[in-house]
């Protein structure tokens, strides 16, 4: 008798059904045990790739390090068991452990080996570390022969330095993920006993062209004045190595950026979309301190001409010192010790 398509042999059907049930059972058991036994690093890896995807799709931010630099310090993730394809992913893995709104960062520095030829079996190793003092990172080695790339991550309330002047203190939040070379230079200034020669020498107020929030007034010119204060961050007697161009976002009110490769720098009093993305931004002044910058911009000036551009130069330069500012956690610990 010819069979219809749904008329199977009973014995063969039973065997097939049992085989199918057995395969499904094995897959379920495999899935359960894979989840329970999966290393924590894979979970972190997934989070990193998710964050990276969001960043590439316009989520903002950056993740950079300094080449030929090896930072030391206690490891919170061992690179021998934790590997990535790029320093960017290693940096993001550290960020994942420093993204909370409360408590200290579990990771504040990372070290990655990304040169296949030099790294050999160490290629891809990502060491996540916790510094004893993130503003004075423990440096193991540096130079052309060092195969590692290292970077810092500052959590909420961390990485703030003070530009002290007679007119008040400008608290600056540093951006090591976007401008690591610049930030390492600023941190080096903290180790000096003085910053003689560091000062502001140019002051351009907002005039009638930008409002108090830094927004440009419709149909107004873009200067002069140019809504910024400019100075130099180079102690007298110290050699300065030009800083490579790093992250150049649109300049906004409070941006702290280099003029060229430094050591000349400026603090913007306005949102300067007309300047395009031409300057490396290595920090930002806390909003509550912009009144100090405005005060300096309002000091007496004289007119000068720089490269055929009329500028306003301070009659008396304003000296500044770069100081370490205590984080909220450090202040709490200091208060506890006094009690």
UniProtKB/TrEMBL annotation:
PPIase cyclophilin-type domain segment(s): 161-314
Residues spanning the membrane: 12-33
Alphabetically ordered keywords of this record: Membrane, Transmembrane, Transmembrane helix
Molecular function GO terms recorded: peptidyl-prolyl cis-trans isomerase activity
Gene3D superfamilies reported for this sequence: Cyclophilin-like (2.40.100.10)
Cross-referenced PANTHER family: EXPRESSED PROTEIN
Protein name: PPIase cyclophilin-type domain-containing protein
